[in-house]
# Entry
Amino acid sequence: MSVRVYDLAHARAGDKGNTSNISVICYDAKHWDFIERELTPERVAEAFKHLAKGPIKRHPLRNLKAFNFVIENALGGGVTVSLAQDIHGKSYSTVMLAIELPDPPK
Amino acid sequence: MVPALELAERGDIDYLVFECLAERTVSRENLSRSKNPDQGYSPSLHARLRMVLPACIKKGIRIVSNMGAANPLGGARAARKEAADLGLGDVAVAVVLGDDVSSMVKHKPELRLIENGEPLESILPKMISANAYLGADVMCEALNTGAPIVLSGRVADPSLFLAPMMHEFGWAYDDLPKIAQGTAAGHLLECTASVTGGCFGWPGKKDVPDLANNGFPFADVKADGSVIIGKTPGTGGRLDVMTCTEQLIYEIHDPTAYITPDCVLDITGVSLTQEAPDRVRVANAQARPATPTYKVNVGYADGYIGEGEVSYGGIDAVARAKWAAEIVRERLKRQGFTYDDFRVDLIGMSSLHDQVDLRPEPYEVRLRMAGRTPDRKAAHAIGFEVRAMHMHGPGGAGGACEPRVRDVLAVKSVLLPKNLVNAQVVVEGSL
# Structure
């Protein structure tokens, strides 16, 4: 059994320069601790290893049932010089949502 | 365009804010102004003002915008002409100047680029523009003139929204709880439809009603700093705690320290509460005093990006697309072209998230190749050679695009002490 981030949370990606900023927001506050335990910066780094060099920092926002992941060196040098089609990395939220977490909460 | 008009007509608002500048827009407009000194403001200013001015003047709604871009004075003249042409008479415009710090930073080659720590000197020879993100203080000063329209160049996005609150309620920078609330409200509003169901929906999971008729948001702010976010009555979309949470965190990086020219905002204590349908209360934003520096965006020319696309479908589509990519690379190499950065995408498999070898093969793919180089000819050659796959490549290539080349306007940033920047207000027209 496993869940995807998608099953428990929603997400939006944004950018500044060469840094991607991806929120992960729990639908239900009761999943916050589980996400905190399982969606570690290391696990996110693994999911983004082909897209971003990192480092990755996770900021907790318990009050908003959320986390904010800040992923550096993620946007092909930055919006203004990137060769990517999705220069802002807006679609990166779906990479986050697809991450599998091993221990589903009861 | 229409949502802004609906907001002006039906939103019961006192201020209509247009935030219109992306990171490199000012650079692009600076190039326009260098070709024609009357240009350099947002070209969309004409259509936007023509649309909303009659309703705004009639209802006494004041317009605040950074559409002045690289030429706020030119923008003000254009705005006044639009008003006169609409029969609205002599409409004064308060113009905020001083964000253009290009002549000053030329003499400060030692400033460090935030992105890579290199001295500014490394990009100075190619610099096109340098603009400080001004704050709400000078926008508030402009509003104090009483002009119906306030136009600026580069101003931090939330500051455009905070300024009317400071003006209305007399909030000062040291009243941090209110500055925090106003900044949070501004951040929630600055991407318009992104807080009312745009950039949000997901069929069956996060449904958004009548998204095609999505309405723009407003903030209902009281003098005590209480904030409710609402949206134009009778529009589609969705405004709730979920949409507000996504937008509140959007592009904020460290949520304990979102730096604006006005304060350092901390959103970690913010609570969002659904007060009524399409009305969300925002409370408990906190802030620390502003930093002593302005962020300055430095735009510079950084060569060219060339690209081309061609499609393959049916049997072995992916194998033929990959073969074509190899052929194009070889043909570019044989002509002696080199690239600072080069990229091959198979649209339908790997153009967004890479890892082509892990993806299932689709029925058809579109090969896209792109490269960045200081040599315009080398940039053009990419699209030329991709298009040539019609003739010189694997069988069954279809639908190549024309070769595309664009100038790269790169942006990096430095911090400049605020006391070196001379932000000021001038009024065009009579009050």
Observations:
- The domain at 299-413 of chain B is CATH 3.30.70.1120 (Alpha-Beta Plaits).
- Chain B touches chain A through 50 residues (CB under 8 Å).
